[in-house]
Amino acid sequence: MEKPDWFNWASDERKTGEWIRTNNPEWFAQMCQILFEHDPMTISLISEPEGYAPEVGSILRSLPQCLNVDDVQQLLFNVFTQWFTPEFAGSRSQYAEAAAAIWENWKQQQLD
After folding, report:
1. Ramachandran quadrant class, 87 (left: phi over 0; alpha: psi -120 to 50; beta: rest)
2. C-alpha closest to that of 35 among 13, 51, 24, 11
3. CA distance 110 to 112
4. Mean pLDDT of the chain
5. Backbone dihedral angles phi then psi of residue 108, each to the nearest 5 degrees
6. Is-contact 49 36, C-beta < 8 A?
7. Which domain of life does this protein belong to (predicted)?
8. How do residues 39-71 score in pLDDT, each as one tens digit?
């Protein structure tokens, strides 16, 4: 049976995420916690911060390209749309609070 197109993409994204987690486990955990607390997709199905690990890998890979909180909000929206579907990801506006928290954390990372 042939694997669907998205399978390789998801597999690559997970590998990237694992590499980032291995190299900066504390930051990775902080990002999972931020998404867990803000739950931008408003799904209480995720019962622990680690539930966001696949998406966090995708976010952290592209975060250095963000220049402001607006870029982070667009990044979050894009990542969740890729990992799920546009319908399930919802509207861009629901990512505002998580984006603000991630942007603050990212700026702090740059200072440390």
Report:
1. alpha
2. 51
3. 6
4. 89
5. -65, -40
6. yes
7. Bacteria
8. 887 766 667 888 888 999 999 999 999 999 999
